[in-house]
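Q: Structure tokens for this one, please.
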Amino acid sequence: MRLFRLAALYFAIVFGTGFLLGPIRLLVLVPRLGSRWAELAEMPVMLAAIVCAARWIVRRTAPPLPRRSWQGVGLIALVLMLAAEFGLVLQLRGIPLAEYFATRDPVSATAYYLSLLAFAAMPAEFARRQRR
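A: Here is the predicted structure, written as tokens:
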């Protein structure tokens, strides 16, 4: 249960950041830069949110968890992120899953998928660094 609570908190921080940035990207950046560049411009901010959230959660957790547990936190948070993305976001946009994948820009989609991998891996990485 502790792993799920930590994963849910990690997910909530990062998803909340993305949820706040979404309207800015859609209303300000997309009309000026286009979808690809707007998504790519948002990516460093989201990666910073991932790093800050992972570092904060690892440092604030007492007693410390084993590294393997942090891998579980990252994977649970990833599942929550994908569920939110494919559930909530697709509902808000009103498109089916197949259309979502078919209409994604290949460059920004690749960057997004890599950021999801970083999101899943970051808690374990900071736990490893903290033990040094």
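A few notes: The chain is about 90% helix and 0% strand. Residues 2-33 form the longest helix (32 residues).
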